Amino acid sequence: MARLAAEQLSVRYGAQRIVSELNLAIPDGKITALVGANGSGKSTILKAMARLLKPDGGTVYLDGKSLLKMDSKEVAKQLAMLPQNPVSPDGLTVSELVSYGRFPYQRGLATSTREDQGMVHWALSVTGMLPFAARPIEQMSGGQRQRAWIAMALAQGTDILFLDEPTTFLDMAHQLEVLQLLDKLNREEGRTIVMVVHDLNHAAQYAHHVVAIRDGQAVYNGTPEEVITEEMLRQVFGILADVVIDQRTGVPLCIPYGLVDGSEESPA
C-alpha cells in the first residue's frame, strides 16, 4: 500500500470543479511526474495532495491517516512542497532561506538547535549550495536559486517532496541541473518525489512513474513506456507525434509534428 494516496478527491475553485473523484496512489521511493495540458488540473492535484488546498470531497491519506486531520507541523515533517516561482525577501541569504525549512521543528521564538544547523549544512551540501551560503538569493542564477529552494525543502527532513514545475523559466542547462539533482536525491536519499512537468521528454527520462491528467482525471497511469504513447499524446495534449525509443537512454522520446485538427497524416 502506498504511503500517500488520494481517494475520490474532488477540488473546486468557486463554482467550478477542477478535480472530480480522483483516485491516485503515489509510488514510494520513486519519482512521479504529473503531465497534461495547461488547465488540466495538474497543479491543483499537487496542491491538494500537499494540503495547500482543501478538497471539496474525498480524502488524501498519508500513512493511512487523513491529511486534513493531521497536525500542521506533523504534516510538514512528512512532506515538503516547492510551489511555482517562489519569492524571497530582498537581502535574504541562501543559508537564511534554507534555515526556514526547520520551522516545523522549532517552538515559539526558540533559536536554532545544533540539529537544525546540521540539517541546514547537509541540505546546502547535498544541493551544491554550500559555497554560496552567505550570498544573497537575488545574486544567484536561476538554477542556483531553484537549488536553494530545494535545499530549504530538504532541510525539513521529509521523505516526500512535491515540486510544481521546478524547471519553469530556466534555460536548458539549468533545467538539467535541477532534474539531475532530483534524480540524485531519489537514488541516494530514497526521496519520494512528485513533480508537475511540462516537458514530456524530461518526464520520460527522469520519472519512474507518469500520470497523464485530463480534465482533473488521471487518464493514463504507469511507467513512461506505458504512458508516453502516440495515442496518449492525441487524447491528452491534442498533438500528433512520433514516439520512438531514445537509443541513448532507452526511454520514450516524443517528436511532435502537428495538431489534432481532423488530419492525422504524418508529413512526408
TrEMBL record:
Membrane topology classification: Peripheral membrane protein
GO biological process: iron ion transport
Gene Ontology MF terms in the entry: ATP binding; ATP hydrolysis activity
GO CC, alphabetical: plasma membrane
Gene3D superfamilies according to UniProt: P-loop containing nucleotide triphosphate hydrolases
Keywords: ATP-binding, Cell membrane, Ion transport, Iron, Iron transport, Membrane, Nucleotide-binding, Transport
Localization of this protein: Cell membrane
Superkingdom per UniProt: Bacteria
Protein name, UniProt field: ABC transporter ATP-binding protein
